[in-house]
């Protein structure tokens, strides 16, 4: 059976994150799934923002040349 987007629920949310405008379009998903995606992007913004003094990226910049403990996701970002 082929199901098209016309027969599924489409959820959208547009918001500012990571210095840009993001838009999440979720086809056939639920409100909790959309909320989880929004939360995840805000979480990554807090971790990677160069404008937040407590972010992992800010700690890396402040401690340049010295070991800094960061999340596995930040290791992937930098790599």
Q: How would you describe what is shown here?
A:
Strands 1-2 form a two-stranded antiparallel ribbon. By secondary structure, it is an alpha+beta fold. 41% of the residues lie in helices and 20% in strands. The longest helix has 18 residues, at 31-48. It contains 3 helices and 2 strands; from the N terminus they run ββααα.
Describe the structure concisely.
This protein is an alpha+beta fold and 79 residues long. Helices cover 41% and strands 20% of the residues.
Please render the helix and strand layout as text.
Blueprint: E1 10-17, E2 20-27, H1 31-48, H2 56-62, H3 72-78
Antiparallel strand pairs: 1-2
User: How would you name the oligomeric state of the polypeptide chains in this document?
Assistant: single chain
Percent of sequence in beta strands: 15-25%
Largest sheet: 2 strands, antiparallel
Low-confidence stretches: none
Query: What is the number of helical segments per DSSP (H or I, 4+ residues)?
Result: 3
Question: From the helix content, strand content and strand pairing, which structural class follows?
Answer: alpha+beta
List keywords for this structure.
79 residues; alpha+beta; two-stranded antiparallel sheet; 3 helices; 41% helix
């Amino acid at each position: 059976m082929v199901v098209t987007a016309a027969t599924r629920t489409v959820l959208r949310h547009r918001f500012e994150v990571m210095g840009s405008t993001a838009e999440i379009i979720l086809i056939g998903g639920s409100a909790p799934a959309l909320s989880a995606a929004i939360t995840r992007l805000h979480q990554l913004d807090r971790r990677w923002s160069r404008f937040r003094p407590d972010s992992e990226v800010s700690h890396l910049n402040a401690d340049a040349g010295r070991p800094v403990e960061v999340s596995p996701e930040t290791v992937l970002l930098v790599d």
